[in-house]
Amino acid sequence: MTGAVFEFHQGSSPLLISVPHDGRELPDDIAARMTPVALTLPDTDWHVAELYAFAREQGASMITARYSRYVVDLNRPPDDAALYAGKPASGICPSKTFGGEALYTDGDPINAAEQDARINRYWRPYHAEIAAVLSQTRRKHGYALLWDAHSIASRVPQLFDGELPVLNIGTNRGASCAPAIESELVRYASQSQYSSVCNGRFTGGYITRYFGKPKQKMHAVQLELSQRSYMNETTLRYNRERSARLQRGLRGLLDTYIRAAETLHA
Predict the structure, then answer these.
(1) How confident is the model at residue 88 (pLDDT cuts 50, 70, 90)?
(2) For residue 179, is it within any domain?
(3) Is residue 159 in some structural domain?
(4) Which of 12, 86, 182, 202 matches a 20 to 30 Å C-alpha distance to 143?
């Protein structure tokens, strides 16, 4: 199924995977105002949709954004409130790259009216679809699981110090999923071949925080991957050997997520 601003695959399991930052399309009127650097989309969560394609075999539903996060950031709140107090923030309609370079040739031309228009055109349909799918899933299975899939460069000095662990699990500090689910995910990640942390630099963005309501049997987890684990960070090319290895770990994480929820809600 194809939506105007997203691609959607309907699965059979209680799991919905959201990929909000792998979109690469730019509306012509926005692209015409962007700098050469911005047009290369340097802050894209490269290849995440391809990386998670295997999950469809596990019965997962998947929603994938078509448009770049530079158009509107689907993982930010509509009122543009800061997610991480005291930390640099890119905003719901960014004006700069993570590296601080201007996105637009005339500086920051996004006024309130344009921001509202982008939110209505691109942000609201994506979130409405997530809400609808999770609601339908809970009615069918008795509970619903959301996995918000992200990746980022291993080193982004403007956002964090040093090199990021490979697996960065975020549960809004335990608020977006049941403790039993979080503990099982942490256990699996800690026993994997990859470095991991739970609720470290990334504790979950707006999608995880808003849709994660464990008391209502709706659980949400964000996974931020370090891009060195599955691609060449210099050429931005997908590395099939690395990705195949990582996919085995991701498959295990998703299986763990589903089994923990099944046990919890049995």
Answers:
(1) low
(2) yes
(3) yes
(4) 202
Q: Is residue 1 part of a domain?
A: no
Question: Which whole-number Å values give the CA distances from 45 to 29, 38, 68, 139, 265, in the listed order?
Answer: 23, 14, 10, 32, 33
The pLDDT of residue 1: 43
Number of domains in the chain: 1
Residue 81 lies in a domain: yes
Q: Which residues pair with 226 in a beta bridge?
A: 152
The pLDDT of residue 158 is 79
Residues 6+ apart with CB under 8 A from 52: 17, 19, 62, 149, 250
* CATH number of the domain bearing residue 148: 3.40.630.40
Q: What is the pTM of this model?
A: 0.96
| pLDDT tens digits, one per residue of 138-154 | 999 999 999 999 999 99
Range of the domain at 37: 6-264
Q: Rg of the chain over CA atoms, in angstroms?
A: 18
